[in-house]
Design a protein that fits this description.
Layout (H helix, E strand, L loop, with lengths): L3 E14 L2 E14 L3 E5 L6 H8 L7 E6 L2 E2 L5 H11 E5 L10 H9 L8 H7 L15 H13 L5 E5 L7 H18 L2 E6 L10 E6 L2 E7 L12
Parallel strand pairs: 3-8, 3-9, 6-7, 7-8
Antiparallel strand pairs: 1-2, 1-4, 4-5, 9-10
Helix pairs in contact: 3-4, 3-5, 4-5, 5-6
């Protein structure tokens, strides 16, 4: 982990509603290394999701710069950001966003059909331990299994970056551990850089690095010398 995959300088986001301005991100300087697992902690409204959305090419910064390797994301228009998302980024959200009329296999295949160098859907599902559930519909799967299908869908295009916004927020603790384990395995086996937003401070123990957010800024940073597997955490 020596190469920076994201570099932010003075990254700022201001939302405007009429005459009211909300400073969501304020002059954030940040470097994320390739292959890192980074946890973003902080209360609601602290800037975590705004940063993740800009990193994912979903939102535009108001000022400052953000590079993905040598790509200046802050200089890109919507078409360039769409291409960036398609090629480089996988998303995992709190709610699974699976299509209920499609099987697990078919939900993953939706992405593999448009990706440049995809895995086979069964390969992606095997990475999250669901190869024997691929022909089940979402209603036939538990919440944790549905989230793992969502992870399989996200990794099926072989993204370099996996952005996860509260991936365990809708799950109980035991099921959440399995989901975090799946994300750690993806990091270990595929080398994807993984960023995880959470309100659960316990999850910080699985990361290489923890960023604490407050008032649109990184208030402090913690590097973990050793990482424990999620299954070993005492939740």
């Amino acid at each position: 982990m020596t190469d920076a995959i994201f570099t932010a300088k003075g990254l700022t986001k201001i939302y405007t509603s009429g005459e009211v301005e909300v400073l969501a991100l304020h002059d954030v300087d940040l470097e994320i290394l390739a292959g890192e697992v980074v946890v973003l902690l902080g209360p609601s409204g602290s800037g975590k999701s705004t940063l993740l959305n800009i990193m994912g090419g979903i939102d535009h910064a108001t000022r400052g710069s953000l590079f993905f390797k040598e790509l200046d994301l802050t200089a890109m228009g919507d078409r360039g950001l769409t291409d960036y998302r398609r090629k480089h980024v996988g998303f995992v959200f709190q709610f699974y966003n699976l299509i209920p009329s499609l099987t697990a296999y078919e939900n993953v295949a939706l992405v593999t059909e448009i990706a440049e160098n995809p895995m086979r859907p069964e390969e992606a599902l095997a990475h999250v331990g669901l190869e024997d559930r691929m022909h089940h519909f979402p209603a036939q799967l538990s919440g944790g299994e549905q989230q793992r299908v969502a992870i399989a869908r996200a990794i099926s295009k072989r993204p370099e970056v996996l952005l996860c916004d509260e991936p365990t927020g809708a799950l109980d603790s035991k099921t959440g551990i399995r989901v975090i384990d799946a994300l750690l395995d993806i990091n270990a086996k595929l080398g994807a850089t993984v960023l995880i937003i959470t309100h659960n401070a316990i999850i910080q123990d699985v990361a290489h690095r923890v960023l604490f957010f407050a008032d649109g800024k990184i208030s402090k940073m913690h590097n973990n010398e050793t990482r424990r597997k999620a299954a070993a955490l005492d939740w």
